[in-house]
Amino acid sequence: MDARLNLFASPTAGKFVKYILSAGKVLENSTLPMTTQALVTLRASQINGCGYCTDMHFKDALAAGEDPLRLNLVAAWREATVFTEAERAALELTEEGTRIADAAGGVSDEVWANAAKHYDEDQLAALVGAIALINTWNRLNVITRNPAGDYQPGQFG
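-> structure tokens emitted (157 positions)
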């Protein structure tokens, strides 16, 4: 499978990607734990069927020392005992924030309140940003059919 569009070769797409990468740097420098960010990006990518991002975020998390068991259980986090209450709240917010078309009201007050119990305002802002950003990346890669499997950890930075 070949990508429909090379996001780095197109001048317009290249500029767009540059700005998205800058947004990612803001999140990397936030106080939201990197482990939480890794779980969020992996789960949203799974939901969206983005093979490229699922491959990337699994490999990057593994290279950063994340437990393969936890990564394997992200798709079934509700039944898994390996996640903290804070991580569970972030994963739940990720699911509702990613599946906004599935619920008439978007993210429920209950899910938001649960996340707010575990994260301060700055961390919540980063969490919302991480969910929005990974959904953007997922859509770019799914629309262009960017193939999965060849990503090497740290390849982009």
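The two ends are 25 Å apart (CA to CA).
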